[in-house]
Amino acid sequence: MSAQSKTESEKLEKLVRTTSLILILLGAAPVFTQFIGVPFVPSPNWVSWTFWPACVVGALSAALALWAVHLSLSEGIQFSASLTTFLAILFMPVVGAFTGFLIVTATTPMLLSLPSFRTVEITFVVSDPDMGGHRRCPRPVALKDTARAINVICDVPKGVRSSLRTGRQIVLVGPGTGFGVFPTQFHLP
Fold first, then answer.
1. Are 120 and 177 a contacting pair, CB within 8 Å?
2. Considering 82, 158, 176, 188, which has the largest number of Cβ atoms within 10 A of its Cβ?
3. In sequence order, which residues have a C-beta less than 8 Å from that of residue 111 and are 6 or more positions away?
């Protein structure tokens, strides 16, 4: 291999790894915001409208993550054991697919909704009104037709939560756009 092609190969490897890392961080953004207490819930219309493009981006992201693992292995970076290598080969495409899907279904509408200062109301269907709460998420309620990692809203008032059943609607109110909402209030339709 000539010195020029080796340099180009190294540049490509760096580009693949950097792009893979950026995609993972972008996909993790909505999960991170929910973790720090600023949840974002994409609208069911957005999620259904972008489902197939999200699947395509997820597949491309999975392939990119697998390529990044392949480049690491072909470069001679040895993981500590063969089990770790197997798990990296198995796990990274799953992480890539999941984050690629979240980039389209959750991160994009979240970024589009950030500059909005208007209050919106978006109606969601409840999938589980009786989830067990924990310290970081008291009184949670799970929603249907939204991205799986961010389908739980916390601190739903007891008055609203006691009236909820699976399949019943709940309205999330807060800053956002028609693409999604940062819920601050909840009520029944």
1. yes
2. 176
3. none
Enter the pTM of the model: 0.83
Question: Residue 152 burial (CB < 10 Å; 0-12/13-18/19+)?
Answer: buried
Structure-token match 């490509």, residue found: 12
Question: What is the distance in angstroms between the CA of the first residue and the CA of the last residue of the chain?
Answer: 67
Q: Find, among 95, 102, 105, the residue nearest to 66 by Cα.
A: 95
Q: Could you please report the per-residue DSSP string of 141-166?
A: EEESSS-GGG-EE----HHHHHH--T
**Taking 60 as the threshold, does the pLDDT of residue 1 lie above it?**
no
Question: How confident is the model over 16-42, as pLDDT tens digits?
Answer: 888 888 988 999 999 999 888 889 999
